[in-house]
C-alpha cells in the first residue's frame, strides 16, 4: 500500500494600518484517499478454492477549500473584529466504490453546498494584564434539504456558536523570557433542529429529527523560557 503526501496550498496577507488591521487567507482542500487491490481466496465445500479480488476504495477526512477576509479595529482598550469565510463543500467527493454501489441502487450521491460563515468578535483590556473576549458566528449547513431523502444520512445542522474568554498575564519568573499567560474559555453551540423525511420509509428507513446543544470549556497555561 502506497500513501502519498497531498499538497494543500496555504497563503495569507495581513496589513496593519495603525488601529486598523486587514487580512485575507486561503487554504486548499485536504482529503485522504485509498485505492487498493487485495488478492485473496475462499475455501468452499468439496475442497475447492475460489480466487477473489477485493478492492478497497476509501475517500475520507475531507476539509474544504476555504477563503476568508477579516478586519479588526482598535478603539483604545476595545478591539472589534469581523471575518467572512467561504467554505467550498461542493468539492467533497465519495469513493468510486460507494458511487458505483449507489448507482446500482438507482440513486445518485448528493452534492453539497458551498457555505458562507460570518464571524464577529470583541476584546477589552480591563487592565494591562487582564483581557476579556467574546465572539459569535453562524454556520449554515452544507447538506441540502433533499440529500437524505433516500439511503443517505449525512448529518449537519445550521448552528449558532457563542464564546467567552479571559486572558490573564502573571509576572514572569527569573528564568522566563515572557510573563506567564493563563487563558480560559467557554463555547456554546446551538445546533438547530432538523427534520429528515424519507421518500419511502419501508425502503430507506424512518423519518427522524436531530439537533442539540454543546457546551465546551478550555483552559491553558503558556510559559516561555
How would you explain this protein's 3D organization?
- With 225 residues, this protein is mainly β.
- It has a single domain (10-30, 62-95, 112-222), classed as Porin (Beta Barrel), CATH 2.40.160.60.
- The protein contains two helices and eleven strands; from the N terminus they run ββββββαββββαβ.
- It has helices at residues 96-104, 201-204; strands at residues 10-17, 20-27, 30-43, 49-63, 65-75, 78-88, 115-125, 130-139, 159-170, 180-196, 208-222.
- The strands form two sheets. Strands 1-2-5-6-7-8-9-10-11 form a nine-stranded antiparallel sheet, with no helix packed on it. Strands 3-4 form a two-stranded antiparallel ribbon.
- A hairpin with a 2-residue loop joins β1 and β2 (20-27).
Quick take:
This protein is mostly beta strands and 225 residues long. Helix content is 6%, strand content 59%.
Using only C-alpha atoms, the radius of gyration works out to 25 Å
- Spatial shape: elongated
The residue ranges in which pLDDT falls below 50 over 5 or more consecutive positions are none
Number of helices: 2
CATH class descriptor? Mainly Beta
| Distance from first to last alpha carbon | 43 Å
Overall SS class: mainly beta
Secondary structure: helix percent: under 10%
CATH-scheme architecture: Beta Barrel
Q: In percent terms, what proportion of residues is strand?
A: over 45%
Q: What summary fits the major beta sheet?
A: 9 strands, antiparallel
CATH superfamily label: Outer membrane protein transport protein (OMPP1/FadL/TodX)
**Sheet with the most strands: spatial strand order:** 1-2-5-6-7-8-9-10-11
CATH topology: Porin
- List SSEs in N-to-C order: EEEEEEHEEEEHE
Give the mean pLDDT.
Answer: 88
Amino acid at each position: 500500500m502506497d500513501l502519498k503526501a497531498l499538497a494543500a496550498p496555504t497563503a495569507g496577507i495581513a496589513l496593519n494600518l495603525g488601529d486598523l488591521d486587514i487580512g485575507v487567507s486561503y487554504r486548499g482542500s485536504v482529503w485522504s484517499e485509498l485505492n487498493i487491490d487485495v488478492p485473496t481466496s475462499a475455501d468452499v465445500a468439496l475442497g475447492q478454492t475460489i480466487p477473489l479480488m477485493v478492492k478497497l476504495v476509501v475517500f475520507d477526512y475531507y476539509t474544504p477549500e476555504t477563503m476568508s477576509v477579516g478586519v479588526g479595529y482598535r478603539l483604545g482598550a476595545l478591539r472589534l473584529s469581523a471575518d467572512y469565510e467561504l467554505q467550498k463543500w461542493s468539492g467533497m467527493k465519495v469513493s468510486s466504490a460507494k458511487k458505483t454501489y449507489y448507482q446500482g441502487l438507482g440513486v445518485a450521491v448528493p452534492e453539497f453546498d458551498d457555505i458562507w460563515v460570518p464571524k464577529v468578535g470583541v476584546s477589552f483590556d480591563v487592565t494591562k494584564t487582564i483581557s476579556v473576549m467574546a465572539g459569535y458566528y453562524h454556520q449554515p449547513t452544507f447538506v441540502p434539504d433533499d440529500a437524505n431523502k433516500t439511503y443517505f444520512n449525512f448529518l449537519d445542522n445550521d448552528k449558532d456558536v457563542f464564546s467567552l474568554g479571559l486572558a490573564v498575564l502573571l509576572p514572569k519568573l527569573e528564568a522566563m523570557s515572557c510573563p506567564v499567560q493563563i487563558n480560559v474559555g467557554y463555547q456554546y453551540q446551538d445546533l438547530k433542529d432538523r427534520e429528515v423525511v424519507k421518500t419511502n420509509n419501508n425502503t430507506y428507513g424512518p423519518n427522524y429529527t436531530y439537533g442539540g446543544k454543546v457546551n465546551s470549556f478550555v483552559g491553558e497555561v503558556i510559559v516561555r523560557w
